[in-house]
Amino acid sequence: MNPLKVTGKVYWLGINDRRKFLFENMWPLDKGVAYNCYLILDNMTALVDTVELRSGGDFVSKVDAMLNGRRLDFLIINHMEPDHSGEIKAIIDKYPGVKIVGNLKTFKIIEAYWGIKDNLHIVDDGDTLDLGYHKLKFVMTPWVHWPETMMTYDQTDAVLFSGDAFGSFGTLDGGVFDDEINFAYYEDEMRRYFSNIVGKYCNMVQKAFKKLEGVPVKAICPTHGPVWRTDPQKVLGLYDKWSKYQTEEGVVIIYASMYGNTEEVADYIARQLVENGITNIRVFDVSRTHISHLINEIWKYKGVMLGSCAYNSEMFPLMENLTRELEHMGVKDHLLGLFGSYSWNGGGVKNLTKFAENIGWEMAAQPADIFGMPNDEKLANCKLLAEGMAVKLKALRK
Ligand SMILES: Cc1cc2nc3c(=O)[nH]c(=O)nc-3n(C[C@H](O)[C@H](O)[C@H](O)COP(=O)(O)O)c2cc1C
Predict the structure, then answer these.
(1) pLDDT confidence of 55, banded at 50, 70, 90?
(2) Ligand 1 in reach of 247 Cβ (< 6 A)
(3) What is the mean pLDDT of residues 97-112?
(4) Are strands 27-28 and 248-256 parallel, antiparallel or unpaired?
(5) What percent of the chain stands above pLDDT 90?
(6) Where does the Flavodoxin-like domain start and stop, copy by copy (predicted)?
(7) Engineering a disulfide at 251: which of 57, 163, 177, 303 sits with its beta carbon 3.0 to 4.6 angstroms away?
(8) 161 and 219 share a domain?
(9) Are residues 263 and 220 in the same domain?
(10) Domain that holds residue 374
(11) Is 80 exceeded by the pLDDT of residue 242?
């Protein structure tokens, strides 16, 4: 296959992984995932990141074919997570003189993983590396998404090698560049990747944005998903929005229900929201939909309604898992509604209320906890809850 040129002397080298079911052994890969790295064939040659170990046949041979007899001068490591650093050792074994470019934190991790201590070229914020045509500058972006994470910026052609930032789940099915794909296909997976993988570090994403303020960016080369060479502003805008917790009008209703009572309330509330003028409504069963999709939906919509039956004096365990994760991620700026059903002393809504206090989201109205089965009388509070949510959402319209 011909090497795919990004710009100047930069080439994309990516591997599609359709075999892995779970990314980080946790996140379902319904559409697979791509590991991207980049080879710069300048006066000096440089490989920016590698791929997951043995994910794409003989990776080293692919690099070697692209080098076409030249030696590899630099291996730049923006991120040490194994889905990008897996082939480091194989590359070093093949090109023993290669200089490994990273920061102090990178090198601690390299030593811990591979015992590598030689040929290290340490860089810090603002340091540069001249390859001939391309003049690289290093930008430290800790916690986007590990402590050692950095980005490499090519000052010549304004290319940002961004690591995991601006990445997406989903394999590259022929189209690699943003002008060759249907963005709608990737947008959801991109937000799912952002919210679940990077979302805990929104403040660090904003700090990285500050560092890049005023820097021209003509292409973004992330380590997953499409390469943004035509409209990089689009993903810059999305990341800015998502990392500021800016959402759309709409409500995601997530319920935990064993015998259908809480589920019935969820459907009732959904209908009430529609009758009160809200149209973007998504209802999910927490037992059926993977938490990564639920978090993705929460990142999209301003309104969140959580419902749980009582379960051994607690909320339903899978709902507890979701709420714990939301608290751990420190998700901000939502309107919250709570509901549930119980048979004796409760537990679902009681504990959801504790979650509400911890996370600090604004409550749409009083929680609605239903004793036993819902009926018209018992649903009156749920009607108020939906109305409260609709009123608050509509008040935000510009
Ligand atoms: C395993 C189990 C544990 C339960 N624990 C409680 C509880 O601690 N407190 C309570 O009031 N009801 C408890 N219940 C009763 C349910 O919460 C109640 O039947 C509720 O209406 C079920 O809602 P659902 O139809 O949405 O599942 C429990 C039921 C089961 C099966």
Answers:
(1) confident
(2) no
(3) 96
(4) unpaired
(5) 95
(6) 251-390
(7) 303
(8) yes
(9) no
(10) 251-395
(11) yes
Q: Which residues contact 272 (CB under 8 A, 6 or more apart)?
A: 382, 383, 386, 387, 390
369: enclosing H helix or E strand = strand 368-371
The preferred substitution site among 309, 314, 338 for testing ligand 1, maximizing ligand atoms within 8 Å of CB, is: 309
- With a CB cutoff of 8 Å and minimum separation 6, the contacts of 201 are 143, 144, 145
Q: How many domains does the chain have?
A: 2
pLDDT band, residue 279 (cuts 50/70/90): very high
- 115: tokens are 């015992």
Considering 243, 265, 287, which residue would you say is the last residue of a domain?
Answer: 243
From 6, 47, 16, select the one nearest 152 (Cα to Cα).
Answer: 47
301-340 pLDDT, tens digit each? 999 999 999 999 999 999 999 999 999 999 999 999 999 9
229 and 257 fall within a common domain: no
Which residue CA neighbors atom 1 of ligand 1 most closely? 311
Q: Above 0.90 for ipTM, yes or no?
A: yes
- Ligand 1 pocket, residue 312 CB under 6 Å: yes
The encoded tokens of residue 321 equal 């898992």
Say whether both 233 and 306 belong to one domain.
no
Share of the chain above pLDDT 70, in %: 99
Please indicate whether residue 316, judged by its CB atom, sits closer than 6 Å to ligand 1. Answer: no
Same domain, 259 and 364: yes
Nearest residue (by CA) to ligand 1, atom 23, is 309
Across the chain, mean pLDDT equals 96
Give yes or no: residues 94 and 221 share one domain: yes
Residue 2 pLDDT greater than 70, yes or no: no
CA of 368 to the centre of ligand 1 (A): 15
